[in-house]
Design goal:
CATH superfamily of the largest domain in chain B: Periplasmic binding protein-like II
Strand content of chain B: 5-15%
CATH class of the largest domain in chain B: Alpha Beta
Radius of gyration of chain B: 23 Å
Number of strands of chain B: 15
Number of strands of chain A: 2
Shape of chain B: globular
Number of helices of chain B: 17
Largest sheet of chain A: 2 strands, antiparallel
Strand order of the largest sheet of chain A: 1-2
Number of domains of chain B: 2
CATH topology of one domain in chain A: MetI-like fold
Distance between the termini of chain A: 31 Å
CATH topology of the largest domain in chain B: D-Maltodextrin-Binding Protein, domain 2
Order of helices and strands of chain A: HEEHHHHHHHHHHH
CATH architecture of one domain in chain A: Orthogonal Bundle
Shape of chain A: flat
Distance between the termini of chain B: 64 Å
Structural class of chain B: alpha/beta
Largest interface: A-B, 53 and 51 residues
Oligomer: heterodimer
Radius of gyration of chain A: 24 Å
Number of helices of chain A: 12
Chain lengths: 300, 439
């Protein structure tokens, strides 16, 4: 009896969420994996549209189109993470130094995050237009008016393997403020004693940041990296709003999944793609969770 | 410090995931309308079958919305018993709406009637058994007596017709800026693509940097389709979809070559741009030509431009005598909650009064040939004349010739070509798309 009293109330408390998450998250992931392994045949022509089993995965991963999409995703993610980290850290340091009207600047940097990707995408589609010279609009027009037409670019429409770097610009604009807030909270969490102690010991400002403050920010940096990274891998709405539904140039696995599911009416291929996206995100997130867990057990 | 912070970080991740989910676009959805399940036929009851009639379209903006409102007005006066419920979904030239519709149909929650481009686009719904034949309604409306036979034959699948065409657009039209053509001393209409390209050279030397205006991917597909039509001729072009013409033959190669040349005279477009961006370039005198469907007339009228003085038009060079058509049409979904009301709607959409009101507002032409032309503007009168006498070809870009999956593959191939200008790759992709999707 006594034993039951210790574990039962706790279990009852978490049971609804265990059941809900079990069914609606893990159950549906299982269903998606199941769908992704199906073998399908066209009703009318008898053509085999999906061979079934692991062959579904090898066929998708082996196609030029999917590899192009994966490459785009890699370029987007790297530029996006590096960009948000640099700007987030830079702004956090500037604000942390105690600028005038800090609250206003903090809000200004954070506001882009409040705008939805789809709304921002509509504006950025126009800002990143590849039209040039007297037809230029958006950023290209700005460069023409500033008298530096040489800076005009095709942005993400460029015929280059690195063109997705331009697609990261709006994403960086949106999420740098969020990363800044994370870093700022990290800085604020370090007690003032340590700074004073370092200064008393004769550390320069650079040495203070390099050897005292930054090492304590590494957990924050890791969290920021994971959050921004997994957002990048699942990004769909921004790209859809900027490049439209059928852009090859800006195709990533998530936009390809939309095409597979709706215009192509092929849920099996879409499920295969979805599982691959899940695995890619898991590769990023799971080691982080394991690492955090181990660190805490060691420290605790 | 035990596992609490692990839970906190998991919690934070969940919140962020929630935020990003919230930031994705929301679609407006309508209540499909719980109408009475009245099984009676429309014709048996004057004034309509009664109940709510939920009509699903992507006509939520501009002249399309005006057209739908005009139809709604006629519907109200002809069928006062029925209540029209507008289930329009905006955005993405119908692509958002089609995604929502696919979900509703898959969940057995169909609207009472939905819009679809007549032709191959409906094959997806037909093969899934989601819509039923409407031959009885077409016959009651007058059948081949009022609809051109060449149109009905393009809508027929295994002797059944699955939709009622409401209006027709022409896709193979070049819109021109009269002043720029005068500046380059171009007076004659070019007879083929080569002559047209020669005219573009004249425009270039007269100081027009971008003789041709293009926009996002689907407008480029439309340009390609008209070039194919020009270089292959109507019969061979139609054969591309039945399998009688191959996609890697010398004619297609020539057309792709011409398509690439035409793009070299065009502005730089972004894949996501919509058609008014390109048409506005002709209106504003930044480009001399734009290939666009004849809904462009509404754009010229909107900007207070006059035909003849400010703008002109001609069929895409080499396609004179062919009407590259696309049609909007309405269907009868299987399991519609109010089939009687849906039949009233289809009767109205296919009737002369409804078609006239709709096309006058939207800037299209009626699918019926018995609607008097004299009340229509000058361009539409000409188009109605051509529709009666021309050969009819089906548009690729607007779902008349190919189904959605095929169109998606073609559009991606064209988008890829626009980036890399690799003609061999485009032909390879087009051939692969045909092999994959041809029935």
């Amino acid at each position: 009896m006594r034993k039951i009293r210790t574990w039962l109330p706790g279990l009852l408390l978490v049971l609804p969420s265990i059941i809900l998450i079990g069914v609606f998250v893990y159950g549906l992931i299982g269903q998606t994996i199941n769908t992704s392994l199906l073998r399908t045949q066209d009703f009318v022509t008898d053509k085999i549209t999906n061979p079934g089993g692991i062959a579904n995965y090898t066929a998708l991963l082996g196609s030029d189109r999917y590899q192009h999409a994966l490459w785009n995703l890699l370029v987007l993610t790297v530029v996006f993470i590096v960009g948000t980290m640099i700007f987030g850290l830079l702004w956090a340091i500037l604000l942390e130094r105690g600028v005038f009207a800090e609250g206003i600047f903090r809000s200004i940097y954070l506001f882009p995050m409040a705008v939805s990707f789809i709304a921002a995408g509509v504006v950025w589609r126009w800002l990143l237009s590849p039209a040039r010279d007297d037809q230029a609009v958006g950023l290209n027009q700005l460069f023409v008016q500033l008298g530096v037409p040489g800076l005009q670019s095709d942005w993400w429409s460029a015929n280059s393997r690195m063109s997705m770097a331009a697609m990261a610009i709006p994403a960086i604009w949106q999420l740098s403020g969020y990363v800044m807030a994370l870093f700022l909270a990290g800085f604020r969490g370090i007690s003032a004693d340590q700074r004073e102690a370092a200064r008393v010991d004769g550390a320069t400002e650079f040495q203070l940041y390099r050897h005292v403050l930054f090492p304590q920010l590494s957990p924050v940096a890791l969290s920021a990296l994971i959050i921004v990274g997994h957002m990048s891998m699942k990004m769909f709405d921004l790209i859809y709003a900027i490049a439209g539904p059928n852009s090859y140039q800006a195709e990533v696995p998530a936009t390809l999944m939309w095409i597979q599911l709706f215009p192509q009416g092929d849920p099996v291929a879409a499920a295969t793609n979805a599982v691959i996206i899940l695995v890619i995100v898991a590769i990023l997130v799971v080691p982080y969770l394991v690492h955090t867990h181990r660190t805490e057990q060691r420290d605790g | 410090m035990d596992r609490r912070s692990l839970f906190i970080s998991l919690g934070a991740a969940a919140v962020v995931a929630g935020l990003s989910a919230c930031s994705s676009g929301t679609q407006t959805t309508g209540d499909p309308g719980a109408g009475s399940s009245d099984e009676q036929n429309a014709s048996s009851k004057p004034g309509g079958a009664g109940g709510d009639v939920g009509v699903f379209t992507w006509w939520a903006d501009g002249s399309e919305k005006l057209g739908l409102e005009a139809l709604q007005g006629v519907f109200k006066s002809e069928f006062p018993n029925d209540t029209f419920v507008n289930l329009a979904v905006a955005g993405g030239a119908g692509s958002n709406a089609k995604a929502k519709l696919a979900a509703d149909l898959a969940n057995n929650n169909p609207p009472d009637s939905f819009q679809g481009h007549a032709g191959a686009e409906l094959l997806d719904y037909i093969s899934k058994g989601q819509i039923v034949a409407v031959n009885d309604i077409i016959d009651a409306l007058g059948g081949t007596g009022v609809f051109p036979e060449s149109l009905l034959s393009k809508l027929t699948v295994k002797e059944s017709i699955y939709s009622v065409p409401s209006n027709i657009h022409r896709a193979n039209v070049v819109w021109t800026n009269t002043q720029l053509l005068a500046k380059a001393k171009i007076t004659d209409t070019p007879a083929n693509i080569a002559a047209w390209i020669a005219d573009m050279d004249k425009l270039r030397s007269a100081g027009v940097a971008t003789p041709l205006a293009v926009s996002g991917s689907w407008t480029q597909v439309q340009l390609l389709e008209t070039v194919l039509l020009s270089d292959l001729g109507t019969e061979a072009y139609t054969g591309l979809f039945s399998g009688e013409t191959t996609w890697d033959g010398p004619e297609v190669t020539k057309a792709v070559d011409n398509f690439g040349k035409l793009l070299s005279y065009a502005n730089k477009a972004s894949d996501g741009d919509d058609w008014p961006v390109a048409t506005d370039m002709v209106i504003d005198g930044k480009a001399a030509y734009n290939v666009m469907g004849d809904w462009a007339v509404a754009q010229f009228a909107d900007k207070k431009k006059e035909e003849g003085k400010d703008w002109g038009w001609f069929p895409v060079p080499g396609t004179d005598g062919t009407f590259d058509f696309l049609a909007d049409s309405f269907t009868l979904p299987k399991g519609a909650k109010n089939p009687g009301g849906a039949k009233d709607w289809l009767t109205l959409v296919g009737g002369a009064a409804g078609q006239k009101a709709f096309s006058l507002a939207k800037g299209s032409i009626p699918a019926r040939i018995d609607v008097p032309a004299d009340e229509f503007p000058a361009y539409q009168q000409k188009a109605m004349e051509s529709f009666k006498s021309d050969k009819i070809a089906s548009s690729i870009a607007h779902g008349a010739a190919v189904n959605q999956a095929w169109l998606s593959d073609i559009t991606t191939a064209v988008s890829k070509f626009y980036g890399g200008k690799d003609a061999a790759a485009l032909i390879k992709d087009l051939t692969a798309a045909a092999e994959k999707n041809r029935g």
